[in-house]
Here is the input.
Amino acid sequence: MFSTYQLLNEETVLSYVKEKLPELATASHVSVKEIGDGNLNYVYRIKDEGTGQSIILKQAGDTARISDEFKLSPDRNRIETEALTLQGSFVSDLVPTIYFFDEVMNCCAMEDLGEFQIMRQALVEHKMFPQFADHITTFMTETLVRTSDVVMPHKDKKEQLKRFVNPELCEISEDLVFTEPYYNNFNRNEVTPGNEAFVEEHLYQNTELHRHVAKLKYTFLTKSESLIHGDMHTGSIFIKEGETKVIDPEFAFYGPMGYDVGNVVANLIFAWANGVVSQDDSFVDWIEKTLVEVVDQFKEKFVATWKNHAIEPFAVQNEAFVTTYLEDVLKDTAGMAGLEMNRRIVGLAKVKDITILEGEARLRAERLVMTLANQFILNASAYQTGDTYLKALHEVKEHQL
Here is the structure.
């Protein structure tokens, strides 16, 4: 019945999973619910109501849910499954378990994280997670350093690079992150009424900014540094007290490490801006502390992972090389953070941290984010420690009060 590709729905999913999972075929009552709220895929929770056991089934369609303009290969589901499997070999407690992948239907079944909450929603509710910085920096250093030429035999890395060629999803990032936010002739941009003049001056007419953005875009296009997640925002992280799970690496490809780290930094700053205009000082303090910890713990763990696993002769024999390499990653991190921040304000795919705000609060939050973003892009090499980010946040906040 499922020997050729077809897009599933709540009715056909049940027949499909019973065919694929014998333990569900004999279950007396299996429920199916479509739970996907992302931009690209279809996600279902299938639950055996008798035993209480459940799985998540994810299927890739040939267009994006966010817009039919994006024609996509369903092969991205294979890329996601292989990326999660590889990441799980490094940090099994920080990703969901994969149960199976069906290359015909472009479906994967995985662990149900129903007890977790999407981190973006948790941050919108101003929840705080003291262990998040430790968890996410472990995930990033292990998955990024250990898939790089520093650790992998160069031929093996090149073979792996071929398996993660991801042109269609990379094109989405190239357009939405690196190009469209800086020009007012793209009809997918959406500027909040009241901030048109600010966007015109600081994004559309800022030729010096464009020069730096162009350099970052070509870094993204050409720097095959390690297997990156490619979409590391707080909507791709499940969280609960004491546990963190990174999901949805369908944008994974071999690119610059700083793109992942910068996305984490940027999404913490969205939550920070929300907290600032909402005047929740305790939440703002926690976000600031977490941001500092993310940057500084990433640096510390990066060096440790490098020393524990490096095989490249220069990496092993020249102790100064790790410092040079890490400085470059951190420079990319700041620039990429700025790109993510600007695109979520004016681009097609916005973030709830900001859109939930109303009136002057939203306008101010957007200006805070864009002001910081441009600083990170224009002066990327200046941001090498958590304290440099913290100083920037405080200065922009005071200037705009």
Summary: Residues 80 and 129 are 26 Å apart (CA to CA). The longest strand covers residues 42-48. The chain has two domains: 10-111, 117-400.
